[in-house]
Amino acid sequence: MAASAKRRRGWRKRLGALARFTGALVIVGGLYSVFSPGLYAQETDPNAIDSEVVKGQELYDTSCISCHGDNGEGVEGRGPSLIGVGSAAVEFQVNTGRMPMAAQGAQAPEAAYPVFTEEEAEWLGAYIDYLGGGAVIPSDLDTLVDDADVGAGGELYRVNCSSCHGFSGGGGALSSGAHAPSLDGVTNLELYQAMLTGPQNMPVFADNQLTPEQKADLIAYVQFIVNDDRDPGGVFNLGRFGPSTEGVAIFLVGMTALLLTTLWIAGKS
Amino acid sequence: MTAHNDSAHGAAERETVDLSDPKLTRLEVFKEGLRRDDIEIIHYEPRFAKPGTKAEKRMERIVGGLFLLSGLSATLFVAAYIFWPWEYEGPSTWRDPQTWYTPILGVTLGLALLLFAVGVLTWAKKLLPIEELVQDRHDGGSSAEDRRIAEATVDGLVEDMGLKRRPFLVKAALLGAAPLGLAAVAPLGALLKDPGDMLTVTGWNAEKYNGGEPIRLMHKDGALIRPDMVSVGGQITAFPAIDHGASNEFPTAPILLIHLRDDDATILHGNLYPMYQEVDALWGNFVAYSKICTHVGCPTSLYEQQSQRLLCPCHQSQFNVVDNAAPVFGPATRHLPILPLSVDDEGYFIATSDFLVPPGPAFWNRPSLPEEDEK
Amino acid sequence: MKRRKGTSDSLLTKAGGELDDRFKLAGPARVLLNKVFPDHWSFLLGEIALFSFILLLLSGTFLALFFEPSMAHVTYEGAYVPLQGVEMTKAYESALDISFEVRGGLIMRQMHHWATLLFMASILIHMLRIFFTGAFRAPRETNWMIGILLFWVGFFEGFFGYSLPDDGLSGTGLRIMEGMTQSVPFIGPWASAALFGGQFPGTSVISMIYIIHVFIFPLILLGLIVVHVGLVFAQKHTQWPGPGRTEHNVVGFRMFPNYIMKQVGFMLFIWGVIAAMAGLFQINPIWLFGPYEVAVVSSASQPDFYVMYLDGLIRLFPAWEFRVPPYFTLPAVFWPAIAGMGLSVLLPLLYPALERRFTKDRGHHNLLQRPRDNPARTGLGVMVVVFWVIGTVSGGNDVFAEKFHISLNAMTWAGRIGIVVLPIIAYYVTYRICLGLQQHDREVLAHGLETGILMRDPNGRFYEVHQPLAEPDEHGHTELEYNGWVVPKKMNRVGALEPADKGFFKSIEEPSDNGGASRDEIESGKH
Question: Which of B81, B319, C4, C253 is packed most tightly, with the most Cβ within 10 A?
Fold first, then answer.
């Protein structure tokens, strides 16, 4: 992380970020008015886009409509309205296997095998975007993360994320059966989508709250502690659950070994 | 005196041995020592009936081998300690040798200790003679004679000092010693500090910390907060925009600024306690709750934006965000105080006053308002 | 002095002579060398605590060379990338430096922490052994009380120790301690201000708990341990009842060489286990926790396991706050934290006196009791263990809830109900099991061992052949006294049959020697 030295703190950074953000808004807004609705995909051929939306709608009408209602308007007591949530939210929920949900529960569980392919998720996202656009993901996310400031990300993580996902990113329990998932093995994109859209009980961290750069800092930090860095303190990290598993380990490993030893020492030979 | 020893064992009754007898063997002298300590041998035999058998040699080799292996492992430990790369070098995988430094040290040192331990224990279990001895316990206090002598000695002592004849001296000594004892602990008073208003006044007190000007809300990095900086369904941790406002100097100041969805905000407006209605504590759909749990003070920051609960990770108290953050589960008994919010001319959030009730854990003379008992 | 023939005329003799000339050692040395110790695996549990403590002193000294107990602010510029440029206290910085900049510092930290957990765990296990066997009875009540004090001093020593690095997790622990301190009626706010030098967290608490952790409490622990071990030595160890063992003797082997070699071996073994665990299992990765900030917390914030039971009680206790507005508040946390801890200290301290009072047993006891022979005490003990386990599990109930997909609220309710109901059930069940075990022992004493051989009498009735333990009377009964000894339950235990398998790690095959009787003869009851 060569960029870790690059640290501008306090007002200047915040103001700079704000200025950049405002600038970016102006540019994006301008581009939007020019290319709309061609922003959904790289291609500019309107038929191609439409076909994505149409394919998305087909999938939606077979798999999502029962809970989220006609045209994503939502069904009281079953599923929220999807108008305005945007493709980032859809792709996050679908690609991590949370949606479609098998049964109503405290919260949608992750699934090892998503029902839809990434391509199908994109179609669904396109359709939901068509119903009413949501937040956008920067196309150069990985570059942003590579240049990010891990230290600043750490501070953001501890103020905003660790209370639910834990200091070591292992996740944590919420009220009444809900939980914040482990961050183990998540991709940059998933992290970004989750922050942007606030899936399930997670609060939203839209771009006005955490700038794309700050999100990149955060992602860089999470990737560092969860995925990049090998625990320096041993072969087993005991799941990084802290004192609870350490307490189990001292009885299961330490005490058990020593109790067997006492049997051997005092045993008649 | 209940279980007085009656020395029923033969050991004590056996004839004494004349130690000056030059014909005594080592064993006989040794046994005389045992006799003097009231010990009797029940069973004693060498581990190997014939010395120098194959089995004995084999056991010797095993124990010796263990010691040598232990030495080898210890040498490896020292070598690894000195030569193995150990400095932390950022992100790493299991292929990087420095990540193995701690495991290698632990395993080599552990093995060295364990091998030596097994060597010593095997020596004790497999090579030492098999023995079983019985020793008298002499439990249950001293003999009557000893007690009598001790009693007389103490009585004489009391008599010599005149403790009974000179009651004045005894009383005067006690009276003098009590303040001396106090004098010994009095310096601990240096630790005492008047808690003053530390539990009731927070960093949001404009009179105390901002010359009476309303205090703005800021991020941890010092950036001031405007309404458009919190997403709908989002929350941020905010601090008073004063010197060191975000530091540990103001442990009761941190707040959780939540931007509620319209529906939720309507519910909260309806539920708001009268004291908060009077001061118009919400600003639009924004509410600022103290982040410090009213149970024992952990940051209550697990905001569930769908179930509208705030959860404290320390003891699992749960607060209802759309009902004044009143506790709904767990050990907490009081709601999280709301910081009265407004927005100033420049568009930044300000606190219109300090919390109406002290945030954080309770203490015996905590000023409480009747509203807290509602619901 | 003329040297006697037959003694080793060596350097050792000479050195011994020189020493004895000056210190008059021959007598006391003989007493020490020949002292008889009983041998049983359960007598080695306290040693685990003793030897962990020695390792704690050694590793702690190493850590103290590098740790700076200061809450002065610095900006981290060390090796650990994600914390570079972060503001923190010197205490946290130096703890990070021990982990990343000091050669071998990390394993020392981990050894120190694992040794602490082992110290506390072995104290608990040792305490259970003493309790369930009645070893605390007269004349050893004092030593039981010293043991209880050792646990509680160790408890706070450990708590202060893991608070020292001033990381995000330990700061949360201190914050909870502040809340608990504040809850004490009348003196709470003053006590809290004294502890933290004003408002929490202040700038002085680390240096205060540092001097307690490295000097005052280790000194108290050392003093108490010396007295504890000294009393075991002076009062002589208890022993299990059995043939030839009475209240007035000790059966075992000599202190030297047998006992001392086993002790040295065991000490090295314990250290080896700790060193291996420190190398293999990461513990308390403070670099992940960041510096302590009042607004920062992590899910799954737990204390170390020996504190977890109190934390669990605090989690389970209902939201009962006594209030007389606006004059007086008694916070809910007072009951589990302050009153609960007070009772946890007092009740065990007083238990020997209470048992004396209720049983009116004022005699000296040097023979241990098997747990089954005192069902009421065993039941009480199991009751406390169940209570403690539920408290401890509840202290980590959020981790349980998350990993096993149980609702957190359900966990809490299960704990609340369980901690009231299960101990009572545990008492009753234990009591019945004890009586059942006693009954079975008596049966064996009266009728003999079950051989597993079914016979059929001429009337066609099936019956099991029993091997009497002594010559039976005309009714087939034996008049053996029930005296708390281990009663053999298997044929091979009485030597009638060789053990099916012998040896600890591998089988040792030895030819059977049972007076020439064949297996058939024994089984058919002719023998």
Answer: B319
CA C511/CA B188 separation, integer angstroms: 74
Residue B237's DSSP bridge partners are B256
> Per 3-state DSSP, what percentage of chain B is helix, strand, and coil (rounded to 5)?
40, 15, 45
Hey, of B236, B247, B302, which one would you mutate to test binding to chain A, going by the most A CBs within 10 A of its CB?
B302
Q: Does A223 touch chain C (CB under 8 A)?
A: no
Per-residue model confidence as pLDDT tens digits over C279-333? 999 999 999 999 999 999 998 889 999 999 999 999 999 999 888 877 889 999 9
pLDDT grade, residue C482 (50/70/90)? confident
- Rounded to two decimals, the pTM is 0.88
Of A106, A152, A164, the CB nearest to C299: A164
What residues of A are in contact with residue B314 (Cβ under 8 Å)? none
Are A254 and C117 spatial neighbours (Cβ–Cβ below 8 Å)? yes
One-letter amino acid at C524 equals S
For B210-233, letters b (16+ CB in 10 Å) and e give beeebbbbbbbbbbbbbbebbbbb
Chain B neighbours (≥3 Cβ pairs under 8 A) are A, C
Rounded CA-CA distance B317/C212 in Å is: 33
Q: Do B364 and C190 touch (CB under 8 A)?
A: no
ipTM of the shown complex:
0.92
Preceding peptide of B85 cis, ω within 30°: no
B90 exposed, middle or buried (CB, 10 Å; 0-12, 13-18, 19+)?
middle
Distance CA A111, CA A101 (A): 10
B325 close to B341: Cβ distance less than 8 angstroms: no
Range list of H helices, chain B: 10-13, 26-36, 54-83, 101-122, 144-161, 167-185, 206-209, 262-271, 274-279
Closest CA to C300 of C396, C404, C408: C396
Q: Omega of the bond prior to A138 within 30 degrees of 0, cis?
A: no
Q: In sequence order, what E strands does chain A have?
A: 172-173, 179-180
Residue B371 CB coordination number (10 Å): 16
List the beta bridge partners of residue B50.
Answer: none
